[in-house]
Design goal:
The complex is a heterodimer. By secondary structure, chain A is of the alpha+beta class. Helix content of chain A is 29%, strand content 16%. In chain A, the strands form three sheets. In chain A, strands 7-2-1-10-11 form a five-stranded antiparallel beta sheet, with no helix packed on it. In chain A, strands 5-4-8-9 form a four-stranded antiparallel beta sheet, with no helix packed on it. Classes of the chains: A alpha+beta, B mainly alpha.
């Protein structure tokens, strides 16, 4: 029994941790890299250097403080991203830029390594344990000056030489809502939407209908079986009919109402079981959670 | 000295005058105040949805007191003002799911469980949403705006606010007020179409009394309801999730306190905040536009389409049902999710033609199915157009 409970607890924790994953560092992606910066973005010191852009693809804010960036497979902890800097929190679907100038003393966003334009550059992001690889990329050699290499669409898998350098912003700039444009072009009257949406609404409710028709059938059969087992008599109450007990109760209630027998009583005639628990003001019992039934 | 003091007082009074509502009033403000007063009058005199119309009507008064924009943080659209903070529940869509939690905790789905085919009426009535959507497109609205306007036809205020806050936030005030106004006007809008589309013979159809539903079935309903609908339309999760969760609190029988809080103090609190802020959001400067008038027209039309679709669907459905199993088409109107008003209309109109034919219990089936149907439809619109 205890093992079973522990198993359920682990299962719960597993599901919980899967749910949490989306808000964690694992959602961060290396998104765009500029190796040779001759006439491009300048840092706060007015200097130009290569840079690495990270992107938070999740729907929650992620703090990358304590994680590691590296350009050396054998040294995953090469650049520890400082903890305690509020700027290391990346908002949902937002970007952050690290300058690969090799001068970490310039601040949180200045790496202690540079990118080599003469050869391939390996860049990786590790989780705060320094062992869990979050993302890695090898930037091909012979990159052109002021042309960046990045994911075609933020967070997606395909890496390309980007047409536009887009530090701290989306790699693919969307100037329209593709979904809305599609509807405007292909369904200007709205018939397509009506047919599709009504089909889905009907499908959802038909599924519910079929399921509860089956549940109802099963429940009625089970209740008949139970009644037969208890009394040994086959009940004659069919679906949609009211049982004799209920009719008797209603008749009695109507009789009492007509005869004004209990007009002053504050009571309700019912065939349901009624519990009348003692409830003094001082009782603590109602403030406590009931123990689960075993 | 005295002269300069008097001129100082005069200047101050003149400055004060520029801050007063009287000085800043425009005809728009006065029109909206009259509309607010009309809402309050209808709620008190005729008891049209008083729980909604009183807060919304009074909110209109609050929102349309004119003032000088001097950064005093008093208006609902001024960031950081008290009203603006409360309004965030509407803008960000927090209130509607909480209202749905309360609705779930107070709704008895027995009528639907005992006669599940009534669910299909709740689906058919959603034609109101998409009918209004197509007409809105023709009137020049963008697809996302048309979707937000169409949802008025679901006759569900929280759903309308939730969807419009996501799809067309700039139209939300007009959509919310329109949805709630027409929900209040259900007793006026629906009966003529119910009479028009049914024959005398159909109006007196007697339906089988619903069977007794076991507590197990009632517990299974919210769980399976959530799984079946949300696996199909995950974008409806905020509304459907809370609706079914609230219902499980009610039906589980072991969370009585939570269910009572959800259907009592919680829903009351949220209704107050929602009503007052939606009302206050109708500031004349933001609200009195041609689009708002179009939205009101489309809203009325969507209610009519939904009502007719529900009734006509029942008549069509009856063609396939055996004698004795037929459905009274007067419950078709309750496929719109104005709970329980539209079901009450079915009962009232039904009694006019047969004083012993009680349709309320039957009408509650499609009525609550309409709540589910409109939430599913909102999820679909959000998925496609969001």
């Amino acid at each position: 029994m205890t093992k079973k409970k522990i198993g359920v607890l682990w299962l719960f924790l597993l599901f919980f941790s899967i749910g949490m994953q989306a808000q964690r560092v694992t959602s961060i992606r290396i998104n765009e890299v500029l190796v040779i910066n001759e006439d491009n973005f300048v840092d706060d010191y007015g200097k130009r250097s290569g840079w690495v852009e990270l992107y938070n693809g999740s729907a929650g804010t992620v703090n990358i403080g304590g994680c590691f960036l590296t350009n050396d497979k054998n040294d995953p902890k090469k650049y520890p991203i400082p903890k305690g800097d509020v700027l290391t929190k990346i908002s949902p679907r937002q970007h952050i830029l690290f300058w690969a100038d090799g001068i970490a003393s310039r601040g949180t966003f200045h790496l202690n390594f540079t990118l080599d334009p003469t050869k391939e550059n390996y860049i990786a992001l590790y989780d705060s344990d320094g062992r869990t690889l979050v993302d890695e990329i090898v930037i091909p050699a012979s990159q052109s000056a002021d042309i960046s290499y990045g994911r075609r669409v933020d967070g997606e898998d395909e890496w390309v030489v980007l047409q536009k350098v887009t530090p701290s912003t989306n790699n693919l700039t969307l100037d329209s809502n593709e979904k809305l444009d599609n509807f405007k072009t292909n369904d200007p009257v709205g018939i397509g939407m009506t047919v599709t949406a009504m089909a889905v609404v009907f499908l959802g409710l038909i599924l519910l209908y079929l399921f509860f028709k089956w549940v109802g059938y099963t429940a009625v059969s089970a209740s008949k079986r139970r009644a037969q087992k208890t009394t040994g008599v086959v009940t004659t109450v069919g679906e949609g009919e009211i049982s004799g007990e209920i009719l008797a109760a209603i008749s009695a209630a109507l009789y009492e109402l007509d005869e004004d027998v209990h007009d002053m009583e504050n009571t309700v005639l019912t065939i349901q079981k009624v519990t009348r628990n003692y409830s003094p003001w001082s009782s603590k019992i109602y403030g406590l959670r009931e123990l689960p039934k075993k | 000295m005295q002269e300069s003091f008097l001129s100082f007082l005069g200047e101050n009074l003149q400055l004060f005058l520029t801050y007063t509502g009287v000085y800043n009033a425009t005809p728009g403000h006065l029109i909206m105040i009259v509309v607010g007063l009309l809402f309050i009058f209808m709620a008190i005199k005729y008891e049209f949805e008083p729980m909604l119309l009183i807060p919304i009507g009074f909110g209109m008064l609050i929102g349309n007191i004119p003032f000088k924009d001097a950064g005093l943080q008093v208006g609902i659209y001024e960031e950081g003002s008290v009203l603006n903070i409360l309004y965030q529940g509407v803008v960000q869509g927090w209130y509607p799911p909480l209202i749905f939690l309360g609705i779930g905790a107070m709704t008895d789905f027995s009528a639907l469980i005992s006669n599940p085919k009534l669910m299909l009426i709740g689906a058919a009535a959603q034609f109101g949403i998409f009918g209004a959507y197509t007409i809105a497109l023709q009137m020049g609205f963008e697809p996302n705006q048309a979707g937000a306007i169409g949802i008025i036809g679901g006759a569900d205020g929280p759903t309308a606010i939730f969807l419009s806050s996501k799809l067309a936030p700039n139209l939300m005030g007009a959509i919310a007020v329109s949805a709630y106004s027409y929900m209040a006007l259900v007793p006026i809008i629906q009966p003529p179409f119910m009479r028009l589309l049914t024959t005398k013979k159909e109006r007196v159809i007697r339906m089988k009394p619903p069977r007794v539903v076991s507590s197990t079935e009632k517990i299974i309903f919210p769980i399976m309801g959530l799984l079946l609908t949300c696996f199909l339309v995950p974008s409806g999760l905020p509304l459907l999730g809370m609706l079914f969760f609230g219902n499980l609190l009610k039906e589980s029988g072991v969370t009585r306190r939570l269910a009572e809080t959800a259907r009592g103090p919680l829903i009351d609190t949220i209704t107050i905040l929602l009503g007052i802020t939606v009302g206050a959001s109708t500031q004349a400067t933001q609200f009195l536009t041609l689009n708002s008038i179009k939205i009101f027209g489309l809203g009325a039309l969507s209610f009519v389409i939904a009502t007719c679709a529900g009734i006509l669907f029942v008549k069509f459905f009856n063609l396939f049902l055996k004698e004795g199993n037929k459905i009274n088409p007067l419950i078709g109107n309750s496929g719109v999710s104005a709970v329980p008003d539209s079901a009450r209309i079915s009962q009232v109109v039904g009694l006019e033609y047969d004083p012993t034919n009680y349709l309320l219990m039957h009408a509650m089936g499609p009525n609550v199915a309409g709540v589910i149907g409109s939430a599913v439809a909102a999820g679909i619109l959000l998925g496609f157009l969001g």
